[in-house]
Amino acid sequence: MTEAESHLYAKRIPIHPRSVKGRFRNLRYAVLALAYGVYFLLPWVRWSRPTGVNQAVLFDIPGRRFYLFDLVVQAQDIFWLAGLLVIAALLLFFVTGLAGRVWCGYFCFQTLWTDVFILIEQWVQGERPARIRLAKQSWDAEKRRKMLATWGLWLLTAFLTGLTFTLYWADAPSLVWNMLTGGAPFAAYATTGFLTLTTFVMAGLAREQVCTYMCPYARFQGAMFDRDTLIISYDAARGEGDAGRAKIGKGAKTLEERQEKKLGDCVDCGYCVQVCPVGIDIRRGLQYQCISCALCIDACDSIMDNLGWRRGLIRYTSDNALAGKSTRLLKPKTLGYGVILTAAVSLLAWSVGTRSLLDASAELVRQPLFVQLSDGRIQNSYEIKLNSKVAQPGKVRIEIAGLPGAELDVDGHNLIPLAAEQRLRVRAKIKLQPDGNLARREFEFVFTPVEGFGTDVIRRPAAFYLKE
Amino acid sequence: MSETTTNQQKPTAVQTTGHAWDGDLQEFNNPLPRWWLWSFYATVVFAVIYWFLYPTWPVGSSWTKGVLSATFTEGGKQETMRWNTRSALLEDLQTGADATRQREYFEKIAAADFATIQKDPQMLAFVNQAGKRIFETNCSACHGRGGQGVVGLFPNLVDDDWLWGGTFKDIQYTITHGRNGYMPSFKGTLNTAQLDDVASYVLSLSGEVQADEASARGKQIFEGPVGGCYMCHGDAAKGIKSMGSANLTDKIWTLANVPAATTPEAKIEAVKAVVSNGVINVRTMPAWDGRMSADEIKLMAVYIHQLGGGQ
């Protein structure tokens, strides 16, 4: 047993990323602003609907309906969600094969929230050296004050995050009021509390460990990479030269001097390592921890700009490009993902676009299967379910076809009025004189929209039983 | 072997408890993981909070009641009780979100008259849903889950034949007050031949057997003083609602299982058995007044009415 093996648990080395300015940093701030804008404001956007539900995006679980602007997703359309998840997965694979971990670096909520939490930390405690000093400091008044402020602001952000998530599941203004006055359902408090806690822990404390140890995607993304995939990489050939990297020093100041000494262009300033939110050194090559946030590019570019040297010592490139070969964009894998992705998107769009305005079904009541009537006829009962998917009231006519001589009895409700988005069950009875020795006859229920449900007639097959 | 010795002798970073048995058998002191310890403390805190909120500790013949309470109405009186599963359930059943929604519907049903309910598909839909549950709880033990009944014992509620009347009011009355069906035994009154004749006549009324001399004799008995059947079943044998006597002219048989019989002889035997034995203490329906609320009975009247063939 060696000493190294006996330590199965490595203590996390805290990471205090230095701030950096640059085009990728700006791009990421833009994405962050957009994402936060959408996430935090969307529940407050109002939308006029005839049914009176006026929240633009509302996931109404008790009402079994998801409202997305003018689209109302009914419970039976929930397979769209499966379609959406399939598309999301395919999009992830497609983009990863093409451009690497774009999701991780720019869009993942773990990245976005960690970014904001680091900003708060930096605002309260100062730049990287100040934070490292504070971390080592004993718990004196200054540290207590600063940590309290940091954690307080984190907690506030986490709470707003949790609260906002909860607002998507109920009417936002009234839910906030109910939560303030203590009258909200337990689920609202529990959801908010749970998400506050997880946001605080994941974005404030766990951070890069989420990506490194918890996220399955980080672990299998390697399988989707190839030599043509866009990655963030250090140009080792240029940076190391023949004699390796060297700090700016005597006789190694200008490019010419360095080239004479066969030194690389990397001045070993360590800025790329200091800005890294996952604490790796990109110069060691592609590592599974790298979330492709591109901050090291900004860091290196700013140093190169200062020195007046060419940018791109760390840049978006591919293994093939680094080796001097050409990068292929149209790979069979990319094309394959692209085709499946397009098919999945088209299928979902088709399904949403051609959704029916009315659902109708008719089920035979099997207890009893049939009943003898006093005039000698046989009666079967059916449970009809009607589900209006439109926001206006409408009317449906219920008829039967293919059962000559039969009498349909819906308690006089052959023409059923349906309120907007109403689900209704109707009990129908059919009476038929037995003829011959047939035990079972097949026919159809015909639901004809009279008003408000378009023109598509719905036909549902059913069976009529005359004997066991 | 030498390796084993090395391992044993190797100094280790883990502390020991200081205990030693048999000279060198020591006990490692491996502290629990920090997270485990904190989780444990958290459960302790949770438990202490729980003691104050809920009934917990036995004290003598009683127990600590906790500070939470539940409010419910029982016997027309509002009561507030310390929290327990029963009071919490009562509170939820009476004032929970679902109970409140259900009460709205029940109030609508209670306020409307039968004709209005019948015209309103929305109210009927609620009647069907709620009625099914109430029926399964209270009525299905005898009448079957679908209301199909048992031939010879419990009437079928899905057909359009009604012993005691099939209007909303009739059904409501039947559920509220219960029913007690009775037919005397004719064992001592009629001999076997006469019973055969009466049975033939009864079956001929609905065309189950051909009218012949026997049925003509039966008609005499039915309408005459010997049998006196007409007194309850009516001159036309169509039954009398106020007495709960069966309509003998239709295709529905609630006591004699005529549809199951294949030959005319078997049909006659089936009817004969009923006439001979009478209907004594088998057609007894309890009163539901007091077991179900008036609103529930009203709802059930509508449910049963449109189960198959209300009038």
Protein topology:
The complex is a heterodimer of chains A (468) and B (311).
Chain A (H helix, E strand, L loop, with lengths): L22 H19 L15 E4 L4 E4 L2 E4 L4 H21 L2 H6 L1 H17 L2 H9 L4 H27 L4 H9 L5 H21 L1 H7 L1 H5 L10 E4 L1 H5 L14 H6 L10 H4 L20 H13 L6 E4 L1 H4 L9 H22 L4 E7 L6 E2 L5 E11 L5 E8 L5 E3 L5 E4 L4 E10 L7 E12 L6 E8 L3
Chain B lengths: L1 H8 L6 E6 L3 E4 L5 H20 L4 E2 L2 E2 L5 E6 L2 E6 L2 H11 L1 H15 L2 H6 L1 H18 L1 H4 L24 H10 L1 E5 L8 H14 L7 H11 L6 H4 L30 H14 L1 E7 L8 H12 L6
Antiparallel strand pairs in B: 1-2, 3-4, 5-6, 7-8
Helix pairs in contact in B: 3-4, 4-13, 6-13, 8-13, 9-10, 9-12
Percent range for β-strand residues of chain B:
5-15%
What's the number of helices of chain B?
13
- Please, what is the oligomeric state? heterodimer
Largest sheet of chain B: 2 strands, antiparallel
Radius of gyration of chain A: 32 Å
- Which range does the strand content of chain A fall in? 15-25%
Could you give the count of β-strands of chain A?
A: 14
By DSSP, the count of extended strands of chain B is 8
In CATH, what is the homologous superfamily of the largest domain in chain B? Answer: Cytochrome c-like domain
- Text of the CATH class of one domain in chain A: Mainly Beta
Largest chain-chain contact?
Answer: A-B, 27 and 30 residues
Mean pLDDT of chain B: 89
- Structural class estimated from helices and strands of chain A: alpha+beta
The helix/strand series of chain B, from N terminus to C terminus, equals HEEHEEEEHHHHHHEHHHHEH
Provide structural commentary.
Chain A: Residues 257-285 form the 4Fe-4S ferredoxin-type domain. The complex is a heterodimer of chains A (468) and B (311). Chain A has helices at 23-41, 79-99, 102-107, 109-125, 128-136, 141-167, 172-180, 186-206, 208-214, 216-220, 236-240, 255-260, 271-274, 295-307, 319-322, 332-353; strands at residues 57-60, 65-68, 71-74, 231-234, 314-317, 358-364, 371-372, 378-388, 394-401, 407-409, 415-418, 423-432, 440-451, 458-465. In chain A, helix 4 packs antiparallel against helix 6 and helix 6 (141-167) crosses helix 8 (186-206). In chain A, strands 6, 7, 8, 10 and 12 form a 5-stranded antiparallel beta sheet that branches. With 468 residues, chain A is an alpha+beta fold. Chain A is elongated, with a radius of gyration of 32 Å. Helices cover 42% and strands 18% of the residues of chain A. Among the domains of chain A are: 231-322, no CATH class; 358-465, Immunoglobulin-like. In chain A, a hairpin with a 5-residue loop joins strand 7 (371-372) and strand 8. Chain B has 311 residues and is α+β, with helices and mostly antiparallel strands. Chain B has 2 domains: 35-95, no CATH class; 130-305, Cytochrome Bc1 Complex, Chain D, domain 2 (Orthogonal Bundle), CATH 1.10.760. Chain B is built from 13 helices and 8 strands. Chain B has helices at 2-9, 34-53, 85-95, 97-111, 114-119, 121-138, 140-143, 168-177, 192-205, 213-223, 230-233, 264-277, 294-305; strands spanning 16-21, 25-28, 58-59, 62-63, 69-74, 77-82, 179-183, 279-285. Chain B has a two-stranded antiparallel ribbon. Chain B has a two-stranded antiparallel ribbon with strand order 3-4. In chain B, strand 3 and strand 4 (62-63) form a beta hairpin. Chain A binds chain B through residues 1, 6, 365-368, 371-376, 379, 381, 383, 411-413, 416-417, 419, 422, 424-427, 429, and chain B through 7, 10, 13, 118-119, 121-122, 124-125, 128-129, 144-148, 156, 158-161, 247, 250-252, 259, 306-309.
